[in-house]
Amino acid sequence: MFDRYEAGEQAVLVHIDFSDDNSKEDLHELQMLVSSAGVNAVDVITASRHSPHPKYFCGSGKAEEIANAVRANDADVVIFNHALSPSQERNLEKLCKCRVLDRTGLILDIFAQRARTHEGKLQVELAQLRHISTRLIRGWTHLERQKGGIGLRGPGETQLETDRRLLRGRIKSILRRLDKVQKQREQGRRSRKRAEIPTLSLVGYTNAGKSTLFNTLTDAQVYAADQLFATLDPTLRKIQLQDVGPAILADTVGFIRHLPHDLVAAFKATLQETQEADLLLHVVDYADDQYRENTDQVNEVLDEIGAGDIRQLMICNKIDRMDGVEPRIDRDEDGVPVRVWLSAQQGLGIELLFDALTECLSHSMVQYRLRIPPKESKLRGVLFGLNCISSESYADDGDWLVDVRMPSADWHRLEKRTEGTVSSYVVKH
Q1: Which PROSITE patterns match (predicted)?
Q2: Lowest mean pLDDT: which of 19-28, 121-130, 220-229, 233-242?
Q3: How far is the first Cα of the chain from the last one, in angstroms, to the nearest whole number?
Q4: Cβ atoms within 10 A of the Cβ of 211, count?
Q5: Is the dihedral of CA 16, 19, 22, 27 positive or negative?
Q6: What is the distance between the alpha carbons of residues 225 and 221, in angstroms, rounded to a whole number?
């Protein structure tokens, strides 16, 4: 019989190479995650497999090797660079006699250390509770059903069932509080839309330099460090763009390959800033050898949260670490900026970024006159909800003549929502 062991600061890292590309992880990234968590890696064990072992994930022989490494190094915790099932965690803990964490548990621990705001702490707790809820099974006899007898008869609820019920109650409580946060953020977004203030959202792989760029553009002095997930709580600041006016810049949490779904669900309110942005500034560490894979991972997460269709401006960061690369703007065949090469830390190319943002946002607003028949009153209500109607009148046949002005991103979302119906009502000049 056993309970979960306490985790410490001395860790044995385990990395398995799989032949399946979808299951592959990066060992260097695991070492950076461990360093970001403040843990000391005393040993690294690697192996190759075609598929995970059902009991130990890594095979019984390799599991014995891990247990020996734990004893030899007096380690407190074993950290796998993969997602483990609850039963695999328990089996490994029985064998190694120490705490076993998977990749998701490690990321959750880092998030718990980084959370500063009330909202951030709630989001982390929600993700942790959802993760823990699948790992409540233990071996203690006090979790068995109550025995019969005088003074011992009762509803028969086990301790395990009680724990699960308490967890469900706490999760519901957190979701209610996060719902209030989401409504407050939605109110702020509606106010910005009414004022026609565009929103720019910094997105990118973790440690790509988003917070450093944010500080350079806004003098916000948010925490920035050369470590994974230095930023957890979102920060919004106003910037001024020539010929555009004010814009809101949002610094968001960094993405990572195989981002746990519990985290995506928990950070829904935060990620909404990305979903509702007019332009995404996709920051890429071009000095990293794996920048292509990291870029693809970010785009996958953006698709997952429903922000894949929003227009992007690629920010090729850290050119100060590359030879022969100067600040510049790359444009497409129509002359529209698509990439800006800069160094956020050295301040190289920042003026070019402001120029590119001005060009992108000056074309971000669309204006149309719509002729809406009376049967489409629901569409008219949707337009009023978007606060995009600048004037309205009636045609002789009773149709509504509506002049709308909105960000192009909102127009594309409206087209998608109405399956193209709204475009058929545009009056051609």
Answers
A1: G_HFLX
A2: 220-229
A3: 78
A4: 24
A5: positive
A6: 12
3-class secondary structure per residue, the chain: CCCCCCCCCEEEEEEEEECCHHHCCCHHHHHHHHHHCCCEEEEEEEEEECCCECCCECCHHHHHHHHHHHHHHCCCEEEECCCCCHHHHHHHHHHHCCEEECHHHHHHHHHHHHCCCHHHHHHHHHHHHHHHCCCCCCCCHHHCCCCCCCCCCCCCCCHHHHHHHHHHHHHHHHHHHHHHHHHHHHHHHHHHHHCCCCEEEEEEECCCCHHHHHHHHHCCCCCCCCCCCCCCCCEEEEEEECCCEEEEEEECCCECCCCCHHHHHHCHHHHHHHHCCCEEEEEEECCCCCHHHHHHHHHHHHHHCCCCCCCEEEEEECHHHCCCCCCEEEECCCCCEEEEECECCCCECHHHHHHHHHHHHHCCEEEEEEEECHHHHHHHHHHHHCCCEEEEEECCCCCEEEEEEEEHHHHHHHHHHCCCHHHHCECCC
**Residue 141 bridge partners (DSSP):** none
pLDDT tens string 101-151: 888 888 888 878 877 777 778 878 888 888 777 776 544 444 444 444 455
Pairwise CA distance, residues 66 & 48, whole Å: 14
Instruction: Compute the average pLDDT of residues 293-316.
Output: 87
Closest CA to 135 of 91, 86, 101, 93: 86
Quote the CA–CA distance of 247 and 233 in Å, as a whole number: 20
Question: Scanning the structure block, which residue is given the tokens 């990291």?
Answer: 294
Tokens of 223: 């925490």
Tell me: pLDDT of 268 over 70: no
Q: What is the mean pLDDT of the chain?
A: 80
Separation between Cα atoms, residue 53 and residue 171, nearest integer Å: 32
Q: Find out whether 253 and 235 touch, Cβ atoms under 8 Å.
A: no
Torsion (CA) 306, 309, 313, 317 in degrees, nearest 10: 40
Of 276-290, 368-382, 406-420, minimum mean pLDDT range:
406-420
Using alpha carbons only, give the angle 35, 64, 59 rounded to the nearest 5 degrees.
90
Question: In the numeric block, which tokens belong to residue 98?
Answer: 């120490």
Contact present, 95 and 70 (Cβ < 8 Å): no
